[in-house]
Design goal:
two-stranded antiparallel ribbon; alpha/beta; five-stranded mixed sheet
């Protein structure tokens, strides 16, 4: 009887635990159902009611031109599978070769061995980058004829009595402005190797770097101003001002082809832009910002706009006008796709212009008719109406690429240059003062120019520092022959 009672109690406990689990699951399902019900009851965001339209406007809207729905492209045939297996290691890597011979037989421990075969293993390894000392003994000789004393010339150095070599300073340049490592992390990394240097020492070396490369950055800026095409954009940069706290300044980028120049400004005023670009004559590709208005009032500066911003405005408007905004966005996407096809075909110059006039200009004209038909049906606060106004107000600038084959359809290249700035901003939080922001701008521009030219930044920086430092008079090279482009030409020779 006791055994039966114990068995019944165990069964009852099992049933109660199952009931508790089912109750929890039912509670969770009720919560989910209530959330869905509340979401269904919430009315969707809608624009203000459209005004009553005359019959002519209604007819124009119903007859608006549209692009056909994008046809799903057939899936390309699968590429032949690449051979599987490990790829060989690169041949250009230096090899550390070692030969190992067994000392005793693994079966009987005998030592009377004869080499009959070998197993070759090839693995990727790494050698730690050790900090080293360079000790130079400069002998002093006395002339037997005139008894004069002569000391051997010192190797190139960044400046007189410098504590580091040109190679070390170039290494610091790469760590800070290419790999974007904060100075305190560099200090900890070297401290782990027993190289104890103060943070003020690193800051002073960055100052030296910026002072030496400032002339080269200035040469890049002169070349940009002397050209007839330039693109620009700006992003925020927090600067720590002593006794005042953090100031929200801006770092600007100016570029064309391989030339990239960054400049720091405390504010984004139009007067600053006007004075900075006073010597520029040509086409300026920028976003639609009012600070460029004074510059574009000049007859010798032509405005070019960014269609990527316009496309984003149409995509944002799809939350309120999903069908109409998607129609407008398809016109802009079709322009980008057509120009991308021209790029794939390698069309440049007059051939690129002819392609754009033949393929993209009709799309632009149809897009203009579409906006004329849709705009009267929208209230001014509608996001789609704002997107259309953006194109109406800046139409000439946004379509400038139809006449100038050098121009891209957007200003995305400027935004891509800010990727390094954003990562540096994330790692370092702020620049340690206005002068620090200017130095960072100089060195970021040199690094970006080297990257566009496909150069090894550390190799170029070492080469330039040797010619900008203590041996400047010996080389006697003008600044124009010390730029990254000049270094690339020297490598080719």
């Amino acid at each position: 009887m006791r055994a039966e009672n114990a068995q019944l109690r165990a069964q009852i406990a099992t049933l109660l635990s199952k009931v508790a689990r089912l109750t929890d699951q039912v509670s969770e399902l009720l919560v989910i159902a209530q959330r869905k019900k509340r979401g269904a009851e919430r009315p969707p965001k809608a624009p203000e009611p459209a005004p009553d339209l005359p019959e002519e406007a209604t007819t124009a809207f119903e007859g608006r031109p549209t692009l056909p729905e994008p046809v799903e492209k057939p899936r390309p045939e699968p590429k032949p599978r690449k051979p599987t297996g490990r790829k060989p290691l690169p041949e250009h890597l230096p090899a550390d070769t070692s030969v190992l011979t067994p000392e005793a037989c693994s079966c009987c421990s005998g030592r009377n061995l004869e080499i009959v075969d070998e197993v070759v293993e090839e693995k990727l390894t790494v050698v730690a980058a050790h900090q080293r000392r360079r000790v130079v003994h400069r002998k002093t000789a006395r002339c037997r004829d005139c008894l004069g004393r002569t000391t051997a010339e010192a190797p190139p150095a960044p400046f007189e009595r410098s504590k580091v070599t040109c190679e070390w300073l170039a290494w610091l340049f790469v760590q800070k402005f290419v790999l974007l490592v904060p100075l305190d992390r560099i200090r900890r990394y070297l401290g782990a190797q027993g190289v104890m240097l103060s943070i003020s020492f690193y800051v002073s070396q960055i100052e030296v770097l910026a002072e030496l490369f400032e002339a080269i950055d200035g040469e890049h800026w002169r070349e940009l101003l002397a050209g007839n095409l330039m693109a620009s954009d700006a992003t925020g940069l927090k600067v720590l001002i002593p006794k005042l706290g953090a100031h929200h300044g801006h770092i600007e980028v100016y570029h064309h082809d391989a030339l990239v120049v960054f400049q720091y400004e405390a504010e984004k005023g139009g007067e600053t832009q006007q004075s900075k670009l006073a010597r520029f004559r040509g086409t300026l590709l920028v976003d639609a910002e009012s600070r460029y208005n004074a510059t574009f009032r000049r007859e010798d500066v032509i405005e070019a706009g960014c269609n990527a911003h316009g496309r984003r405005k149409f995509r944002d408007a799809e939350e309120v006008q999903p069908k109409l905004a998607a129609e407008g966005a398809r016109f802009i996407s079709a322009m980008f796709e057509s120009d991308d096809e021209a790029r794939k075909q390698g069309l440049v110059g007059d051939a690129r212009r002819a392609w754009r006039q033949r393929e993209i200009a009709p799309l632009a004209a149809t897009f203009r008719k579409w906006m004329d038909a849709v705009d009267p049906t929208l209230v001014p606060s509608d996001p789609l109406a704002k997107a259309i106004r953006y194109y109406r107000n800046h139409w000439d600038a946004l379509m400038r690429f139809l006449e100038d084959p050098r121009l891209p359809l957007d200003n995305s290249a400027s935004e891509r240059e800010f990727q390094a700035v954003a990562k540096l901003r994330l790692n370092c939080l702020f620049a340690g003062g206005t002068e620090g922001a200017h130095r960072a701008a100089v060195l970021l521009g040199i690094a970006a120019t080297c990257r566009r030219l496909g150069l090894d930044v550390q190799a170029y920086a070492t080469w330039a520092l040797e010619r900008l430092g203590t041996h400047r008079a010996k080389f006697a090279l003008p600044v124009a022959q010390l730029t990254p482009a000049a270094y690339k030409q020297a490598l080719a020779r």
